[in-house]
Amino acid sequence: MRLTRRYRFSASHRLHTPALSEEENYLLYGKCNNPYGHGHNYVLDITVEGPVDRHGQVAPRAPLDELVQERVLARLDHRNLNEDVPELAGSVPTTENLASIVHRMLVEHWNLKPRLARLRISETDRNTFEMEASGDGQ
Amino acid sequence: MRLTRRYRFSASHRLHTPALSEEENYLLYGKCNNPYGHGHNYVLDITVEGPVDRHGQVAPRAPLDELVQERVLARLDHRNLNEDVPELAGSVPTTENLASIVHRMLVEHWNLKPRLARLRISETDRNTFEMEASGDGQ
Amino acid sequence: MRLTRRYRFSASHRLHTPALSEEENYLLYGKCNNPYGHGHNYVLDITVEGPVDRHGQVAPRAPLDELVQERVLARLDHRNLNEDVPELAGSVPTTENLASIVHRMLVEHWNLKPRLARLRISETDRNTFEMEASGDGQ
Amino acid sequence: MRLTRRYRFSASHRLHTPALSEEENYLLYGKCNNPYGHGHNYVLDITVEGPVDRHGQVAPRAPLDELVQERVLARLDHRNLNEDVPELAGSVPTTENLASIVHRMLVEHWNLKPRLARLRISETDRNTFEMEASGDGQ
Amino acid sequence: MRLTRRYRFSASHRLHTPALSEEENYLLYGKCNNPYGHGHNYVLDITVEGPVDRHGQVAPRAPLDELVQERVLARLDHRNLNEDVPELAGSVPTTENLASIVHRMLVEHWNLKPRLARLRISETDRNTFEMEASGDGQ
Amino acid sequence: MRLTRRYRFSASHRLHTPALSEEENYLLYGKCNNPYGHGHNYVLDITVEGPVDRHGQVAPRAPLDELVQERVLARLDHRNLNEDVPELAGSVPTTENLASIVHRMLVEHWNLKPRLARLRISETDRNTFEMEASGDGQ
Q1: Which of B92, D76, D107, F87 has its CA 20 to 30 A from that of D83?
Q2: Are F62 and F18 in contact (CB under 8 A)?
């Protein structure tokens, strides 16, 4: 049984890499390269997977919410991804890199019985990024 | 080819297990343990899978709708899951248990060519439960 | 300037009036008359109206949220509208009557500068009830 | 007849006023006061009103889109509202103030036959700001 | 009290007027002028207004649904608006003209106690047409 | 990492096969068999999969958008699927067959580094068709 629980956060970012020239940055990232940044309402879907326990749940809701709140939302919600998130220092805050960071934030402190199965972040209605979870944290 | 067809139903429930004390019930189920129950607009997504037939369909829509209507919606829509659904007697009507019941309701009478591949129930916009279908009924 | 702020709650109800016979009740309320009740995810939109203050706001968000949480959501969320809400005693818990109750709950304790302008409750995606706010409380 | 046409843009902002102390700013604007800003996917609904012309339209779509694109979206989309929008200089970029600016951007160059009737901006699913249009530009 | 009830229908149309040349038609209607037509999933919102009756309703749901089904949906759903709808003969099937037709279809046979207050049709997520209802039928 | 990017198009179709009698056609396709056709707002979700490159992306957005625009949307948007799409000649324009065509349109000219992983088309909110991508084009 899989449970997907939805969370939301708002953040700003600017896509720019020092590895490329100004022109190349603009060509690659388009409007997302604007110097002062912009922002999004992100949607985060966390999927956990496991057997249904004798109380009828694949995962109690409260510990999952606490983990996501403490490890992820408290660090990303209403933040500037270029300035406020040490885990993203040195990398471009694309939603791909953001998804990897969120994955790491979760697995490092994963203490729930069901495994973390999938992680999905939507930047807008038009762009959704998804990764199967893996690694030691689950 | 997979076709996912969406259905909706409204129902009420109360989460409470006699295996736990009053305090433990409240700790585990939170507001869902309120004595007189509450309710939701559930969204049910049924996914069938198979080859496309010579009329261009993975499954004719009418027999699928009839099966879901007769086996599932007629028994759950505008019902109290604690009182009105014999299949849930003795178990806590969490959406996990509800998904298992709906799966069984469908596979027991499955008479369609494409196999039942997946079943998904959303309790609210924030909670979606999903199970890969399996077993003899498909 | 108008600000509409959206809240959500889940509740159960049964539509039944002692003024009508069993048959008349079923004819009038249909499936909503099922004896053990059913439920919905309600969406509540509160609209306030007034000038924009020197801090750029028609209404600070925190006091509005506190008022709605304390007067409305704490009394309706995860409740049985027939059993748990004294304000609805003696009336059928249709969403029309629910809207009137919510209106009264708000205006009786309205302590915000902008006036309460409109109140909207959706029972499902298909049914939305709306009333212009009025009276002394605003 | 009224036509409401929906546009979208993404932007970042920080809510902070020099008229208040650090503590007062945080108390008033909450997480929106975070020093490096955050962002949103804004939804902009423009409503025009007038008679239906002999070609069956209240307003041809192309000139309306061009006006909104040129006067509004080109200046706000993928921008930082604190840094990139001269019209907001000296005011806090709340969505209330943003709505007033967008209204002014539109009426100053309004050259369409139907009048601008209403303007609505959603910051998130939970917050929608609405103003009836007025003034000489329509 | 106002109740807005949502209905859906799918239809095709081509926007073209014999009053204009081929070039002018294309300039005015754009892709909607493509010779073989295209289509949409329309959303129809019907708003009725009146006092709440002693059974707690502004309008019983069943007679409203029957009226809309019989007068509107049965004539428009899964239809070609250029070919199948006599009321649109001689006019371009824009959504503005469609809204006027639906308004007439409803008021001509209006037999409900609450008045028809508003009618709204969305052609896509981006285009919504709205008219206050008026006339003898209400 | 998977990126799903959402596109939209509007088209009309009629479901009818010469292999069946009039009655059989109507029985099989229901209202979709109406002689003059009807239409939908289709939603197309394209999923690509691959490693994240050193600029933080699984796929640059611009080339993907260009490919989908040129190979798919330019041929389907605001079109009549029975008349305007040579690839569908001789087959019934069900959404199953439409999905296969779109898949072929994409893989034949696929020139992006990440592979095409999945393709999903929704005809309405109630019907979604999905196929895992496969073949030489990826």
Answers
A1: D107
A2: no
The tokens 């209802």 sit on which residue? E133
Our answer to whether residue C87 is catalytic in this structure is no
Q: Which residues contact A18 (CB under 8 A, 6 or more apart)?
A: none
- CA triple E113-E117-E123, angle to 5 deg: 125
Q: How many residues comprise chain E? A: 138
D31: its two tokens: 């997480």
Q: At E91, is the pLDDT very low, low, confident or very high (cuts 50, 70, 90)? A: very high
Which residues share a beta bridge with F2? A130, F49
Domain boundaries, chain A: 2-132
**F125 neighbourhood in chain E, CB within 8 Å:** 41
Beta-carbon contacts of B19 under 8 Å, excluding residues fewer than 6 positions away, are: A54, A55
Partners of residue F29 in chain E, C-beta under 8 Å: none
Average pLDDT per consecutive 10 residues, chain A (138 residues; last block may be shorter): 98 96 95 96 98 96 97 97 96 97 96 96 97 66
Token representation of residue F23: 């009655």
Is there a contact between C49 and C1 (Cβ–Cβ < 8 Å)? yes
D57 touches chain E (CB under 8 A): yes
CA atoms within 13 A on the CB side of B68: 18
Taking Cα atoms as reference points, which of B37, B46, B111 lies closest to residue B72?
Answer: B46
Contact D12 A79 (CB under 8 A): no
DSSP, res F106? H
User: Are D10 and D77 spatial neighbours (Cβ–Cβ below 8 Å)?
Assistant: yes
Residues of A in contact with D13 (CB under 8 A): 39
Cα–chain center distance at C19 = 24
* Letter string b/e over residues E59-81, b meaning 16 or more CB atoms within 10 A of that residue's CB: bbbeebeebbeebbbebbbbbbb
- How far apart, in whole angstroms, are the C-alpha atoms of residue B35 and residue B26? 10
Tokens for D30, please give them: 């909450």
pLDDT at B119 over 50: yes
At A115, list the tokens.
């495994």
* Residue E135 scores a pLDDT above 60: no
Tokens of B79: 């019902």
| Cα–Cα dist D12/D25, whole Å | 18
Percent helix, percent strand, percent coil in chain C, to nearest 5:
30, 30, 40
> How many whole angstroms separate alpha carbon A87 and alpha carbon C101?
49
Q: Return the structure tokens found at D129.
A: 């700001």
Q: What is the distance in angstroms between the Cα of F92 and the nearest Cα belonging to chain B?
A: 6
CATH superfamily of domain region E2-132: 6-pyruvoyl tetrahydropterin synthase/QueD (3.30.479.10)
